User: Fold these one by one.
Assistant:
Number 1:
Amino acid sequence: MVDVNGINFIGEEIEVFENEFYGDCNIGFNYIELMQYTGFKDDNGKDIYEGDKLILTVEFKEIDGMDEVQCDTGTVEWYEGGWIVYSDKFSDDRLYDWSFDSVVVIGNIHENSEL
């Protein structure tokens, strides 16, 4: 993965500065997969990107003193101007405000299309 300095949509290429893989150069769209960073990091400090698959954990405090921990997996997507995580178990409001007790990236669609 490299940081992109510029995107030329007319010439269909990106500009990258010198790094461990390339010198200063332009790379055509047909050789790359652009990934959108969400601005979030998981519990291990790993950047979270669109299409990442996450393990989500939420702790619920019960009135009777018994705590309940629920886990599910979800996929990061852009929706109506913000990042959400699609999950079967957790409600939509939790997905919009990212109020999970734990979030860990387990993979992404770019490295494993089966996710």
Note: The helical segments are 92-97.
Number 2:
Amino acid sequence: MTVEKALAILDDLRAWNNTPPPDEEAVEALSLAISTLRAQQDAEKNEPLTLGELRQMDGEPVWVEPYLAVPDGWYLVDLTDMALRRRHSVIWIDKPNAASKFTAYRRPPVKEE
């Protein structure tokens, strides 16, 4: 079963349990399950980070796939110098067109074969 199908079933159960007289405990439990599953779905997404998101991640690791001669891998966000750093490699993120030079993710993207 997919998460989407489970969410649809839980939504239907919550609506059914919310009809008069409502089973308030069941409605609360179903609401909690729905919000937990939706949060898990959001956490599993691994969209490319924007420059705005990177600017909120000082000191945090990001996975980078550059388009230039810089190697793929984990980098630390360094907002002091507006750069992504790893041993022997720096990607400047405050330069014009910086976003077109690399793609940063919260974790390595899954390669589709």
Note: The mean pLDDT is 81.
Number 3:
Amino acid sequence: MESIGRSTKTARYRALAILSGHPGLAPQWMGGEKWAVDFLKSKNLRTFRRLSIFVYHGENDLNCPYDLTEKVVGRLRANGNRVEFASDQRGHDPLSPVMEQRYADWLKRQIEP
């Protein structure tokens, strides 16, 4: 298994959810610190290979650019991840009831045998 920084044990996890996140925020805000992982780089996504991933991002998010999430989703899929990408016309807001239900349905599929 590959790792990012410290020892990472992804075998413990079945799935991952990303809700309106900025994949390159840490290195951008931390001034290039070695430990600040940039998830826009495909090499940093290898650790998460084979995980099922739910990604939500509002298309009108003014805090985290929507196009960066689209890039990460494409790279995750190229990495072999099963990605469910959910979006709507909202901004950087809590999930709508429709998206909450979609996320809950995805979670149920992850924990069922």
Note: Residues 10-96 form a domain with the Rossmann fold fold (CATH 3.40.50.1820).
Number 4:
Amino acid sequence: MYVLAVTIFSGIMATLMMIGIMEPITRSKLANADMLRAIGSIFTKSYENSLTHGLIAHIASGIFFALFYFLMFNFVLGDK
């Protein structure tokens, strides 16, 4: 149970760090890296209501990838 909680926490933190890195890039106008609104607009079909949906989807995918990597490393390296 502890390993699952740490893996989920790691996925959330990694996703938040990615958002924290991409946000200044978007604000500085170097590139349009606003993935939260891009992902959210897939679900809402509008730019205005997309932030919440994008944040939820982005964090959910971060948790999924953290669990996927944990399972793959555990499968390849085993319990050592």
Note: The chain has a mean pLDDT of 92.
